Amino acid sequence: MTAVGRDVGRRRWHCGAVKPPPPVLLAIVAGVAQRALTRDMPPAPGVRAVAATMTAGLSAALAATSARQFLRRGTTLQPLDPSQASVLVTTGSNAITRNPMYVGLAGLLTANAIRRGSWAALLPVGGFVVLIDRLQITAEERALVAKFGAEYESYVATVPRWLDQRSLPR
Prior knowledge:
Layout: H1 3-8, H2 23-37, H3 46-73, H4 100-116, H5 122-148, H6 150-158
């Protein structure tokens, strides 16, 4: 079985007719959940504020550079219909992770958890990652393997879905 087959062959959480919610909406819901879970937490002092700001900046930069590359290459940013992709973007931040925009959203949520200084604020981050991984990314991968075949299979073999040791500079 191919690498994509292993990733995509996992249990499907939605049927073909039911579309997952937009990823940005899931991130907003996770952010609201973080606030609800940490309502009584004071704002981040000193080191925590710096760490949160750095994490947020890096996360936003990762997502923004990927979006810019998609636009430059003339392909869609629309996550709800990945079959509209006209080109496979594999350079820049997409050479670090196959999903830099989702990693960026998860990073922004992580920055918010750091800012809030609460382990409980990490729970919505985990929920966001699981939902995006199971609802959105698997559907995207099916569409991309159908559209780009061996080229996408090769990309999957060398670049991680999220982040791992292959994401580090060599």
